[in-house]
Amino acid sequence: MTVTAQDIRRAAELLDGRIVRTPTLHSRTLSDIAGCRLWLKFENLQYTASFKDRGACVKLASLDEAARQGGVIAASAGNHAQGVAYHARRLGIPATIVMPAQTPFNKVRQTEHFGARIVLHGADLAESYDHAVEIADREGLTVVHPYDDPAIIAGQGTAALEMLEDAPDLDALVVPIGGGGLIGGMALMAAEMKPGIEIFGVEAALYPAMKQCLAGADIRTGGTTIAEGIAVKRPGEITREIVRRQVADILLVDEPALENAVLMLLEIEKSVVEGAGAAALAAVLENRERFAGRTVGAVVSGGNIDSRVLSAILMRGLVRQGRLVRLRIEIQDQPGVLGAVARLIGEAGGNIVEVYHQRLFHNVPLKQAELDVVLETRDADHVAAVLKALSDAGHPATMISSATGAKVG
């Protein structure tokens, strides 16, 4: 089975008016940070908040009447699930979705909202897919594969058509890779529209399945990632051959880089993005020398992030940036000293969030105490100023690592 640029153009005609034509926008601030001219394709603005709307719509529209009446089934960690469920409801097709048992609640809830029957099964997408095939055989359902299907690939490829229409000067595209449907379709379309453009894939460092597969290595993946949308263990058969021919390189990004990219997109672009959706930006920021001076298009592929995960990323980001710190302060165990320390911190511009007054359980002299104080600050320089103010007043203080409790500096 093959996919052509003409298939993608036909898919674009079919999708016209049925999905959102998401914006491709130049980010001045992120361009300055990354050292390139950076354009972002905001697929998180699709109705179901991911690019998966494209392929799901094209695939379901291609089904004959018997398949539509019989119903469809898909396996997904969330975004493909929502795309299939939404367009199945729109077209009047019964849909069943098999999701890994630990899928974030918000993705399960959203998929149920679109009227699909939900089956939670398996530790990962591979196990969920195998279970979906069993159900399909038993109930006569049509399996809608998340990436290894020509109609799905053609639908996803329309994102490149829009990007290059909106930003024709792009000389590189950076695209997340899970099973390869998005990058496969986009690479085919981009190569036809602009020969010579370089395509880069991005995988989570814990799930480098496509990179390992193309290198002829055993596929070894696993671990907890915030980029569950691209945590795929089985690259597609069709997609891997497209990637082999069309993609210049596959870049790997670790968890801190993914967290940082999610935080930057929220703070700078005011855009809520999931871990997989931030992978392309993370790769550009982690490979500045590779993209320096170029005109780069990065796909923000989805925005379905669990609120608890987003909250944790925000707080951890504040810690890494020195905007939320924990100080350990040595004080005399006398009346009024605690108030004096609080006044010193306030005068230095720090905002106290939490205070732990240790008298009994730390190894400190009898007439001394230790304060663990969590502060909101502006940045690392501001932290240094607070520490100096405390030290000058006779209250030695040390910044404590939030992860280990070890003293820093």
Identify the notable features of this structure and list them briefly.
409 residues, alpha/beta, five-stranded antiparallel β-sheet, 17 helices, 44% helix
Written description of the protein model:
Strand 4, helix 6 (105-113) and strand 5 (117-120) form a beta-alpha-beta unit. Helix 5 runs parallel beside helix 6 (105-113) and helix 12 packs across helix 15. This protein has 409 residues and is of the alpha/beta class. Residues 402-409 have low confidence and may be disordered. It has 17 helices and 15 strands. The strands form 3 sheets. Strands 1-2-10-7-8-9 form a 6-stranded mixed beta sheet, with helices on both faces. It has helices spanning 5-15, 28-34, 52-61, 65-70, 79-91, 105-113, 125-139, 150-166, 181-193, 209-214, 237-246, 255-269, 279-286, 288-291, 307-320, 337-347, 380-392; strands spanning 24-26, 37-42, 72-75, 95-99, 117-120, 142-143, 172-176, 198-204, 249-253, 295-300, 324-332, 351-358, 368-376, 397-400, 407-408. The chain is elongated, with a radius of gyration of 25 Å.
Helix content: 40-55%
Mean of residue pLDDT values? 92
Category from helices, strands and their pairing: alpha/beta
Radius of gyration based on Cα positions: 25 Å
**Unreliable parts:** 402-409
What is the overall silhouette? elongated
Distance between the termini: 60 Å
Query: What's the total number of strands?
Result: 15
Number of helices: 17
Major sheet = 6 strands, mixed
What portion of the residues fall into strands of 2 or more residues?
15-25%
With strands numbered from the N-terminus, the spatial order across the biggest sheet is 1-2-10-7-8-9
